[in-house]
Amino acid sequence: MSDKSPGLIGRFFRGLWNTLNFTRRLVFNLIFVVILFAVVVSAMRGSPTIEAKTALVLDPEGTIVEQYSGDPVERALAKVGGEGEKQIQLRDLLRTIDLAAKDARIERIVLLPDQVSAGLATLREIGQALDRFRDAGKELVVVSEGMSQGGYYLAAHANEILLDPQGMVLLEGLSSYRSYYRDALDKLGVDVHLIKVGEYKSAAEPFVLNKASDAAKEATRYWMGGIWESYLDEIAALRKLDPATLRNDIANLDQQVAAYQGDLAKLALERKLVDRIATRAEVRELLKAKGAPSADGETFRQVNWRDYLSMQVALPDSRPQVGVIVAQGDIVQGERPQGTVGGSTIAQLIRQARKDEAIKALVLRVDSPGGDAYASEVIRREIELIQAAGKPVIVSMGDVAASGGYWISMNADEIWAQPNTITGSIGIFGLFVTIPEALGKLGIHTDGVGTAPLAGALDIRRPFDPKAEAIMTSVIEKGYRDFIGKVADARGKSSTDIDTVARGRVWSGEQAKERGLVDKLGGLQQAIVSAAGRAGLGDGYRTQYVEKPLSTWERLALSLGETEAAARIGRWSGFGLPPGLLPKGEIEETVGLLRTLGGGRLGVVAHCFCEPERR
After folding, report:
1. Cα distance from N-terminal residue to C-terminal residue, the chain
2. What residue ranges do the domains of the chain occupy?
3. What pLDDT does 6 receive?
4. Residues 321-443+457-572+602-607, CATH architecture
5. How far is 110 from 440, CA to CA, in rounded Å?
6. d(CA 181, CA 184)
7. pLDDT for residue 289
8. Which among 110, 123, 189 is positioned nearest to 152, based on CA atoms?
């Protein structure tokens, strides 16, 4: 046993480490105490009370998602720090609206749709919930300072739309434009080798072409045109407008604006897109007259939807359950956090639902453009197992359920989609990049030997070996045969029948139903009801989301992050970079996605770059 004491240098670094460790603990403890103090102060203020003739203010600011993405603790800390994208769970909005429809104290909803961001299928889900609210004999009033076509898609469901004198309603149509990199890659000396099956499978075209192929334009024009026509027909029906007149007004917007001398609010009023022009002060007086004034008399009696939802108490419920599992994001292998569909993660959740005796049926909510073919197959196999256990599986498609997203859906007992869901894209591709020419421009050359003809064939520094290309082609072609074969078995059709509607072609939900790829048109609630019916539950059931359980620390972090006090601390802190200071480039995003999907291995991808911009 040595009795030597640490030397001077050792004592210095040990002391430095102890000092850093103490400082770290002190800082985190101080932050925790400040947050805890703010939470206690907020709690002492008490929750708002709801009286009769109260208006529910629905102001969904941010991106509406199926489930929050990322790690719960990181999300909570980002919120406290005033960073990160604002996300709103679709389920929370739907639950709030449906609860308010049954609450005698809630007289109307005041909807502020200006800052909402969501795909059209998601917006349709919310619109259907707003219709249920109105069917309960209650009023929906929209207050807007200016709407794009996404916000207006919700606003059209209202009894009355009030627009600010400086506001506007902008309906410009749908678009799908992408950047193409072939010339840029040639200049860099980068060779991209694309192997695909299906002339409509256009996901990787930007790496090998300078413009969209004719097949890609044909397919995109068809499904996007179908969704746009459906959008216009719905708006016209809700607002009691002539569809042809509405189409003509949008097509000739430049002339319309000139005719009204640039007064966009007056244009919207005259074309009956809104019902009244009113400032915020006038809106407050109007709503006070409709309902009741607030305690201070300054505005109308109201409760924000987030406060209203937080006031709801979940009572113990022993009824049988319909489980809901969300598959949102790109499909990749392994364990992944929410916001990405990890093959192992979703398979484990399905397995959990299979073993849970309280869950009698499963709804798989799919909002995914696809991804890794093997990860998709892992999920599909697990669906077969839960069906074999006697539990029906219903798929409810969100904004996008294409390519790999369709792969994980096809074996369901029933597939539901909204008319404006994007689906199909049944096809796969492989992509391999080589850079010998790029390295040559830098004076770097590669040479050596291998023990077999294919040794080093996948070294990106060397030209792509024709034998390796032949192997990859065979793998891709087999993958496509497997894909359409599985779809044919699941849908009760022949492989030839499926091939005619596959080949990478994208369809709207309505078009997919016409071609036998989807069973019924409707939203998540209809899918849940169908699942309960197939399980023989009648009306005696409840819905339970099946998700990875949160740890104690994660629950604490989220509870702190959700408080207004914590949000105020985030605003005080001033930490973090301004939003958008470091935007993620389109090339970086696309290449990063392909790298993630490939997982650093040789494989095939079933992905569709077909998600429209959120509005």
Report:
1. 72
2. 54-175+217-310, 321-443+457-572+602-607
3. 62
4. Alpha-Beta Complex (3.90)
5. 64
6. 5
7. 94
8. 123
- In the residue annotation, 403 being an active-site residue is answered as yes
* pLDDT 10s digits, 368-423: 999 999 999 999 999 999 999 999 999 999 999 999 999 999 999 999 999 999 99
CA–CA distance, 203 with 597 (Å, rounded to integer): 13
pLDDT > 70 fraction of the chain, expressed in percent and rounded: 82
Catalytic residue among 79, 201, 391, 513: 201
> Closest Cα partner for 219 from 608, 567, 615?
608
Q: Strands 605-607 and 370-372, how do they pair? A: antiparallel
β-pair type (160-163, 139-144): parallel
Q: Residue type for 12, please?
A: F
Q: Is 284 left (phi over 0), alpha (psi -120 to 50) or beta?
A: alpha
- According to the model, what pLDDT value does residue 168 have? 95
- Among residues 155, 116, 162, 93, the alpha carbon closest in space to that of 300 is found at 162
* pLDDT, averaged across the chain: 86
Q: Which of 69-78, 356-365, 437-446, 507-516 has the lowest mean pLDDT?
A: 69-78
Same-fold call for 54-175+217-310 versus 321-443+457-572+602-607: yes
Give the residues across from 520 on adjacent strands.
416
The residue ranking higher by pLDDT, 18 or 269, is 269
What is the arrangement of strands in the sheet containing 116-117, beginning at the earlier edge strand?
87-89, 62-65, 116-117
| Spatial contact of 487 and 498, defined as CB atoms under 8 Å apart | yes
| Catalytic residue (choose from 144, 202, 368, 403) | 403
Per-residue tokens: 272: 């009956």
User: What 3 state SS string does 307-372 have?
Assistant: HHHHCCCCCCCCCCEEEEEEEECCEECCCCCCCCEEHHHHHHHHHHHHHCCCEEEEEEEEEECEEE
- In 3D space, the residue among 145, 206, 155, 147 whose CA is nearest the CA of residue 181 turns out to be 206
CA distance 287 to 305: 17
* HSE (side-chain half, CA atoms, 13 Å) at 57: 15
| Cα 123 to Cα 65: distance, rounded to the nearest angstrom | 11
**SS3 of 55, please?**
strand
Residue with token string 């099946």? 546
What's the predicted TM-score (pTM) here? 0.83
Q: For residue 79, which of 565, 526, 611 has the smallest C-alpha distance?
A: 565
Tokens of 102: 């049954």
Copy the structure tokens of residue 275. Answer: 């019902």
Instruction: Name residue 140's beta-bridge partners.
Output: 109
Q: Strands 506-508 and 422-424, how do they pair?
A: antiparallel
Mean pLDDT on 169-181: 92
Q: So what's the pLDDT on residue 572?
A: 35
Q: Helix H segments across 136-242?
A: 149-155, 182-188, 214-239
Q: Which residues of 488-515 are buried (b: 16+ CB within 10 A; e: fewer)?
A: bebbebeeebbbebbbbbbbbbbbbbeb
What is the per-residue burial (b if ≥16 Cβ within 10 Å, else e) of 122-143? bbbbbbbbbebbbeeebbbbbb
Best CA proximity match to 396, nearest among 373, 417, 411, 410: 417
Average pLDDT over residues 111-120: 95
Phi, psi (deg, nearest 5) at residue 188:
-85, -10
pLDDT, tens digit, for every residue of 69-108?
Answer: 876 656 555 555 555 568 999 999 999 999 999 999 999 9
Using DSSP's 3-state secondary structure scheme, residue 364 falls into strand
Structure tokens at 476: 């891709």
- Is domain 54-175+217-310 given the CATH code 3.90.226.10 in the classification? yes
Question: Could you tell me whether strands 341-342 and 331-332 are parallel, antiparallel, or unpaired per DSSP bridges?
Answer: parallel
**Tokens at 602, concatenated:** 């040789």
